Amino acid sequence: MIASLEGKIVFRGERFLILEAGGVGYKVFVGPETLRTIPRDKDTVKIYTAHRQREDAQELYGFLTYGELDLFDLLNSVSGVGPRTALSVLGVASLDMLKKAIAGGETSYLTKVSGIGRKTAEKIIIELREKMGRTSATDEFRHEEDALEALAALGYSLREARDALAKVSSDVVGAEARIKAALAVLGR
Question: pTM for this structure?
Answer without folding.
Answer: 0.72
